[in-house]
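Good day; I would like, with your permission, to put a structural problem before you. The record follows directly beneath this note:
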Amino acid sequence: MKLNKLAIATLCLGMSASVFAADYDLKFGMVAGTSSNEYKAVEFFAKEVKEKSNGKIEIAIFPSAQLGDDRVMMKQLKDGALDFTLGESARFQIFYPEAEVFALPYMIPNFDVAKKAVLETNFGKNLFAKINKELGMTLLSVGYNGTRQTTSNRAINAIEDMKGLKLRVPNAATNLAFAKYVGAAPTPMAFSEVYLALQTNSVDGQENPLPTIQAQKFYEVQKYLALTNHILNDQLYLVSNETLADLPEDLQAVVKEAALAAAEYHTKLFVDGENELIAFFKEKGVTVTTPDLAPFKAALQPYYDEYLQKNGEVGKQAVAEISELTK
């Protein structure tokens, strides 16, 4: 008798699960971990999609590069093996060299300009039309992902104070160029090694967005923070064209609207966080300086010239249209 009851209960449970199962089980892969602002925003996105689709769409999140790095996940979107991911505009330079413009130091002064550069310039529209057609993914929305600042073991009050500073940077062309052209000694190094290198003065400084500086506790081993504002990071919400095509129009609309809302929340998390973190670092005994950035930008002009030489007419168009946005 007990066995029959158990069998009936199991059958009922199976029936109720099937009644409430989603029509579309989708996957969102990302590099950032579960404690990040990015993860919070993607959770928001998944919740919005589920609610607004009345449970027809369920999104499972795979953080901490479980499915590979951003380049691997972009390929998975193209192949239809993954539904959503995040990616920076400048990251597309691995496919289209002209996309480097989005990370040229001091090219983009604020997020308003960054967003318009992607969505409103002819350069941005043409680039993302190519990405859609050739890489098989659609841009859903653009969020703000922080601005890179410089910590060091000595005060940086002016560009002259950068001279000879052994600055850890990721092995990326634009970050290396920033260090080189402002007079520092660029020192590429794995991210996992940075804290110890700062602690032992193997390097004199590093550069990252404020939330990263806090999360990695670099303030424990660096007592100076200069607001150099040299590279602004955006974050794009991307969907596989195959996934979008599989959804009926009403659910496509749900996904698009949820991505816009998630990007707004994403931006708010970073903006609010940055405002609060300045005070946090000061409380931790960090001296915060605000050097005049005009000489920093002027020092990068040779690198702008290199970009223009490499990218010809499309590069000229990118720089001209983005520069126009800053007037």
User: Anything to note?
Assistant: The chain has one domain: 24-325. The first strand starts at residue 24 and ends at 29.
